[in-house]
C-alpha cells in the first residue's frame, strides 16, 4: 500500500509512463505526472484511483525545468518518495548520418535527466530513510542494435547510473533499480512500425517483423505489466533488490 507516498513519473502522459502511473495510483500513491501531449486526459485517467494528481510540463532535457518541477512538488506534496525516470525518445540512423542535435537531445532526455531528478530527490528520501528509484532503461541498456547509437549509449549509461546510485544508498532504505523492457506497443514503437510499413507497404507484416527480429515471445510487453513490476520494486519484499537491471523483454536478451 502506497497511501501517503508521492510518486514522480517523468514522461507519463503516454505509453509506459502512464501505465506505471496508473498502477502506482491504484496502490494509493499521490502522482506527479510529466510530459507533453494530452496531459488533461492523463490526469483524468490517473485521478480515477483517488490519490492527488498533478501534472507539470517540465522539459526534462533542461536542468532548470527539472529544478522548477521539484520546487512545485515540494510545495504541493513535500517530497518525492518514488521516482520513476521514464521519459525517453528514439532516433534511428547510422552513426555517421546521426543528426548531432538529436544525439544531444537523446542523451539529455534518456540519461542526464535521471541524474538531475535523482540528485534532487535523494535528500528528501535520505531524510525519511525510504525511497524507490526505478529507471526505465531498455533491452538496449544491455545489448545493442544497429542504427540506435544514441539510444543504446544512453540506456547503457542509465544502467550504469542505476548501479552507482544503488551503491551510494546501499545502507539506507532507498533502493535504485533499472527495468529493461523489450518491445512495448507505444507511440515510440508505433513510429518504427510505421516507417517499416512505409517501406514494405504491409503494416501487419511490419509489426510481425519488428517482433520476430528481437522478441522470441512474438508478443508485446504491456505497460500495465511494467507497472506491476514497479509496484513489486516499491514493496518491502524488494528491499534487497539493489542495482539490478531487471528484464521484461519476452526473451530478447536471453538469446
Ligand atoms: P512514449 O513516446 O509513449 O512516451 C514518452 C513520454 O515521454 C511521453 O509522455 C512524452 O511526452 C515524454 N517526453 C518526451 N520528451 C520529453 C521531455 N523532453 N520532457 C518531458 N517528457 C518528455 O514512449 P514509451 O514507449 O512509453 O517510452 C517510455 C520509456 O520507455 C522511454 O524511456 C523508452 O526509451 C523506454 N522503453 C520503451 C520501449 C518500447 O518498446 N516502447 C522499450 C524499452 C524501453
Automatic annotation (TrEMBL):
Its EC number is 1.1.1.30. One of its GO terms (molecular function) is 3-hydroxybutyrate dehydrogenase activity. Coiled coil: none annotated. InterPro entries: 3-OHbutyrate_DH, NAD(P)-bd_dom_sf, Sc_DH/Rdtase_CS, SDR, SDR_fam. The keyword Oxidoreductase applies. Keywords: Oxidoreductase. Belongs to the short-chain dehydrogenases/reductases (SDR) family. This is 3-hydroxybutyrate dehydrogenase.
